[in-house]
Write a structure and sequence with these properties.
282 residues; Rossmann fold; 46% helix
């Protein structure tokens, strides 16, 4: 685990440059960990950021090739130190997979829960994306100073990826803080995609439905089978990597849930609000 990695000069060697590198924020569990392990398996140098010491230790033991960082994303000072540390390394891809969910339909949202969701789902995401875009732009602008052997078609396209939610696709007054923050994430990623296009930097946002992760099962008494259109982590990983490889702007899945969301959004807002209140408050 690294909390303050040693500085690495920006004049990287050809060997280091030829190995694609990814940073996965929220990469110690769930779909974030699946993405980290997938990139490691296909030869990427992987760095993951998490806050749970036990999960970080487990990765260090089982996957020593992966570099880990401990950071509480709700702490602005820890975020600042993390990004300063990561600034010392070159990377090709940043994946923001951290997220916080609280069932506002069942439990009352208090100050601590509100601060937690806002910090992780929106504030830390915005800070990481702003930092990542600046770093990738710098790398693109200075790429002409690298050797020809590094500048080849084998290098992946620089990219920023974020894990939103299909909940963010719904536009109605009764939306939860979670849904509103994910909607903001989707809009932010779209703006970055347009702004970074001149730099040849790809931005992809993933708006998935229910993924059968341990976190989802823990929130539902050990089983997520009752969730509509729930998909496995392996299936989600396949769809996410396909979207990244194809440079999709907004990947929404599963399709059946996307079509349902699309139809619901066509309803007049007062009617949609009434329908979802009746459904969600049961």
């Amino acid at each position: 685990m690294q909390t303050c990695p040693s500085a690495i000069d920006h004049k990287y060697t050809t060997e280091k440059q030829s190995t694609p590198q990814v940073i996965v924020v929220g990469g110690t569990s769930g779909i974030g960990l699946a993405l980290a392990l997938h990139h490691s398996a296909i030869g990427w140098q992987v760095r993951v950021v998490g806050h749970n010491d036990a999960k970080i230790t487990k990765i260090n033991v089982e996957h020593p090739e992966i570099i880990t960082y401990a950071c509480d994303l709700t702490d602005s000072e820890q975020r600042r130190r993390l990004l300063a540390d990561l600034e010392q390394t070159r990377f090709d891809r940043v994946i923001y997979s951290a997220g916080s969910y609280f069932n506002e339909r069942v439990h009352q949202l208090n100050k601590a829960d509100s601060d937690l969701m806002l910090a992780i789902n929106l504030q830390a995401f915005q800070e990481v994306f702003a930092w990542g875009s600046q770093q990738l732009k710098y790398q693109q602008l200075t790429a002409k100073h690298t050797t020809k052997s590094i500048m080849n078609n084998a290098q992946p396209k620089p990219s920023l990826i974020c894990m939103a939610s299909i909940a963010g696709m719904m536009d109605y007054p009764y939306a939860s803080l979670y849904a509103k923050s994910k909607r903001a994430m989707i809009a932010t990623a779209s703006a970055y995609r347009l702004a970074l296009a001149p730099y040849n930097i790809q931005v992809t946002c993933i708006a998935s439905g229910y993924i059968d992760t341990k976190a989802l099962r823990d929130l539902n008494q050990g089983s997520a089978d009752h969730k509509p259109f729930v998909i496995s982590i392996d299936k989600a990983l396949q769809l996410i990597m396909k979207a990244i490889d194809e440079g999709v702007e907004l990947a929404v899945f599963p399709k059946r849930l996307y079509y349902l969301t699309y139809m619901l959004n066509k309803l007049p807002k007062p009617l949609l609000d009434r329908v979802l209140r009746g459904k969600l408050d049961k």
